Amino acid sequence: MVSYEGIAEGHYFLDKARFAIGRKSDNDICLDAPGVSHLHAVIITIGNDHVLEDADSTNGISINGEKITKHILQNNDVIELSGYQLKYVNQRATSDMDFDKTMIMKAPQLEVNALPAHVTPQTRPPLATAVFSARSVKTSFPLGGVKNLKGQDPEEEILISRPLKTFGLPGVQVVMISRRPHGYYVTHVEGKKHPRVNGKSVGSRPFLLKENDLVEAGEIKLKFFLKHSG
């Protein structure tokens, strides 16, 4: 949903692999304001999720009031740029936030003819109901990174401490490795070939990496590792 200085201007469905946002008329989302760059930002579709990336704009982008360069969009995020506000609505977007769940487990109903002779349906004790409250816990996952086996120094460690990092040549072949509380995932962003992990294609959906996994896509060849404390 797009609005300018509080006035709603329209809705856009993110049903393409890549969306361009900017002042030029050939952008998918055209925002005609002086502070908007010709190509201001792009939104990349990855499975049910979307990644917003600043396209080296002059005035930058904010998400919920915080300046960003890359961001995995979450439901109800508000993108702000040069007077425009774009509200992202996607209830299927991945969320790493804590949540509470209450699970109620009821004992199965017993057939009357299965009761002992001295117990009748009227005299038997009530069936137990167990209630468990469970909170998802943010795990302290080790810091991870990759070695670029096709780089100038194959032993150089590239640590991935931010939420995501992309590898490859834009417009040709790009993969993304995202850091989440429970691990690191590799995802296809653009290019004809999907990433392969240890020689097997992982398709277009995020794939959980394990230590020493080999990630390949086109000219990209990365070896994933974890930094263990001690």
Give a written overview of the molecule.
This protein has strands at 2-4, 7-10, 18-22, 29-30, 41-46, 49-54, 61-63, 66-68, 70-72, 78-81, 84-87, 100-106, 129-135, 143-148, 157-160, 164-169, 173-180, 183-190, 196-197, 200-201, 207-208, 214-217, 220-227. The strands form five sheets. Strands 2-1-11-10-7-8 form a six-stranded antiparallel β-sheet, with no helix packed on it. A hairpin with a 2-residue loop joins β22 and β23 (220-227). It has 230 residues and is mainly β. The chain has two domains: 2-88, Tumour Suppressor Smad4 (Sandwich), CATH 2.60.200; 144-226, Tumour Suppressor Smad4, CATH 2.60.200.20.
The amount of beta strand, in percent, is over 45%
Rg: 25 Å
Total DSSP helices? 0
Multimeric state of these chains?
single chain
Main CATH class of the largest domain: Mainly Beta
Q: Which spans of ≥5 residues are poorly predicted at pLDDT below 50?
A: 96-139
Fraction of residues in H or I helices: under 10%
Main beta sheet: 6 strands, antiparallel
Tell me, rounded to a whole number, the average pLDDT. 76
**What's the number of extended β-strand segments?**
23
Number of domains: 2
Give the class from helix and strand content and strand pairing: mainly beta
List the secondary-structure elements in sequence, H or E. EEEEEEEEEEEEEEEEEEEEEEE
**CATH hierarchy: architecture of the largest domain:** Sandwich
Here the CATH topology of the largest domain equals: Tumour Suppressor Smad4
User: What is the topology, as strand order, of the major beta sheet?
Assistant: 2-1-11-10-7-8
Gross morphology is elongated
N-to-C CA distance: 48 Å
